[in-house]
Design a protein that fits this description.
Blueprint lengths: L5 E2 L1 H8 L3 H12 L7 E3 L5 E4 H18 L3 H12 L1
Antiparallel strand pairs: 1-3, 2-3
Length: 84
């Protein structure tokens, strides 16, 4: 790991046990998310990941997954509470 907390995609894949296809999907999702600054592309072949921001992206992604897979009745109750 670099002193600034950046890692290469391969290091992230190893540390988080992420397959190549999953990495590609999650990287794309991250770049389209509020945490897009977790991915640093300095050239077509050179990419780095700011791990602390990557972890925030994963937490955001987990929350979205949880919301999507909630029981529809529970989801409705939570939506109603947000509107109050």
């Amino acid at each position: 790991m670099m002193a600034n907390g950046w890692k290469t995609p391969k290091q992230i894949q190893e540390d988080y046990q992420i397959a190549d296809k999953t990495w590609a999907t999650w990287r794309s999702q991250c770049e389209a998310s509020p945490y897009r600054d977790a991915i640093i592309r300095v050239s077509a072949r050179s990419t780095f990941v700011v791990e602390s921001k990557w972890q925030k992206f994963l937490m955001w992604r987990a929350q979205k997954f949880k919301e999507k897979h909630l029981d529809p009745h529970v989801r409705q109750i939570l939506e109603e509470e947000k509107l109050k």
